[in-house]
Amino acid sequence: MTSHRGRTWAPRGTTPVVRFNGGSRGRVTMAALTCYKPGERSRLIYRPRVQGHHRGDHRGFTWQDYRDLIVRAHLQLGAPIVLIWDNLNVHRSAGIREYAAGHDWLTIVQLPTYSPDLNPVEGIWSLLRRAVTVNTVFTDREQLVQAVRSGMRSIQRTPHLIDGCLTGTGLSLTPA
């Protein structure tokens, strides 16, 4: 729950200081899909996951969590999905590969290794960090989750931001 540093203003000669206790229990992780279809507005589908700080808790999303997100996207979009993913180990898991093989509406394409500049979702995370979490100290996980959900909803309501994340990658919807 430590904040990201950003620029701010203060009277000349005075450095702004924010004090906090630094205690953090558990973590919040997010998974998101940017969805593009020619002729339609771009969409952002996301899921937060709040984990406790207990033994046995998963530290991140499992392949089943990603599968559920993909199924939810398929139901919302009502169309086949071509999923372009980075090389996170969960994205390459046997469970995901088997699931994709069993469903003809799902095609998975892996991005090259070490290519976050080709992933539009990285642009979403950048927008979120710069607009929502910068220079903010959250008192607890619930406040952080509420702020992040609010920021994600704001991005969802602004399709040109989602389009800009695709444009920032240099990729396009039109076949070459």
Notes on the structure:
The longest helix is centred in the last third of the chain and has 16 residues. With 176 residues, this protein is α+β, with helices and mostly antiparallel strands. The chain has a single domain, classed as 2-Layer Sandwich (Nucleotidyltransferase, domain 5). Helix 3 packs across helix 4 and helix 3 packs across helix 5. Strands 1-2 form a two-stranded antiparallel sheet. A two-stranded parallel ribbon has the order 3-4. Strand 3, helix 2 and strand 4 form a beta-alpha-beta unit. It is built from 5 helices and 4 strands. The relative contact order is 0.18.
Shape: globular
Number of helices: 5
What is the helix content? 25-40%
The ordered string of helix (H) and strand (E) elements is EEHEHEHHH
Radius of gyration: 18 Å
CATH architecture: 2-Layer Sandwich
